[in-house]
Amino acid sequence: MTDDAALASEQPIQQPPRQAKSLTIGAVCKGLQQEFPDISISKIRYLEDQKLVTPRRTPGGYRLYSPSDVARLRTILRLQRDEYMPLAVIRQELASGRTVEDSSAAAPASADGAAPAARPAGGSPRRMSVSVRPGGSTYSLEDVVEDTGAEARLVQELEDFGIIKGELKGGTRYYDETDREIVRAVRELAAYGVAGRNLRVFKSSAEREAALLNQILAPSLRSRNPERRREALDALENLAAVASHLKHLLLVRDLRRTTG
Fold it and tell me: Which has the closest alpha carbon to 77: 55, 57, 98, 60?
């Protein structure tokens, strides 16, 4: 045996890299639920309908998701949850090369699908994702006051104006995640002299927008078909995110005009 042959025989045989296994839509949904409790098969299908993810199909028509498909889904869901982006903007972000690693610094969602209220240096909390589904954590008045730094009388004032509405359980009033974040936001506004009566403008605007969005999807939202109703809820959440993004852009435009 030559020296070269002997050397070759001592080298370990390298196995070809093992191809990552594709997952069914059910397995993908289960794998994402720990970080995104509100995820559902219908929502994943909705994202596919919106051309945001394109899984491979078997000859029998079953969807098979590759690891890159799952990573793309995770990016989409994080951008919705943590950066409040509507799907139209997410599509642009993905087209520009946005990846799951870019969104990996995001904190995990809370039990009701909302991003936790982080307190960055500027003092503003992380914005919540748009979730219209009921459920999630509830908080007593003491919890809300301690977590937001607001005074109890401010919470009561918000209830008097109909801005928030707690639920009485066993003699104690509890507030949901959205109520708590409203209190936090109002406390920040109050620091600039925004009084409770000024909040009627925000309340009236939100009520008009909610009525419009509900009207658009009313037949599907009232459907007795659970699948159709879930799809309508997914669509409603996306519409709400788009409307919120549009309102933000209009506000920025008008503010620039007044300061230009």
Answer: 98
- The sign one gets for the Cα dihedral 94, 100, 101, 102 is positive
State the sign of the Cα–Cα–Cα–Cα dihedral 249, 255, 257, 260.
negative
Q: Is the dihedral of CA 205, 37, 183, 164 positive or negative?
A: positive
Other beta carbons within 10 Å of 37:
18
Cα–Cα distance for residue pair 82/84, rounded to 1 Å: 6
Q: Which tens digit of pLDDT belongs to each residue from 46-92?
A: 899 888 999 999 888 889 999 999 999 999 999 888 877 778 788 88
CA-to-CA separations, 258 to 5, 193, 244, 252, 253, in angstroms, rounded = 81, 20, 21, 10, 9
Instruction: Show the tokens assigned to 250.
Output: 């209009």
pLDDT at 112 over 80: no
End-to-end Cα spacing for the chain: 85
Q: What is the CATH number of domain 120-197?
A: 1.10.1660.10
Name the token pair of 79: 């951008």
Type of residue found at 246? L
**How far is it, in rounded angstroms, from Cα 109 to Cα 82?**
9
Cα–Cα–Cα angle for 154, 119, 188, nearest 5°? 30
Collapse the DSSP code of 38 into the 3-class scheme (helix H, G, I; strand E, B; otherwise coil) and give the result.
Answer: coil
Read off the tokens for 35: 């970080």
Q: In sequence order, which residues have a C-beta less than 8 Å from that of residue 124 and are 6 or more positions away?
A: 188
Burial class (CB in 10 A: 0-12, 13-18, 19+), 175: buried
| pTM confidence score | 0.53
| CB proximity list for 147: less than 8 A, separation 6 or greater | 117, 139, 180, 184
Residues 26, 45 contacting (CB under 8 angstroms): no
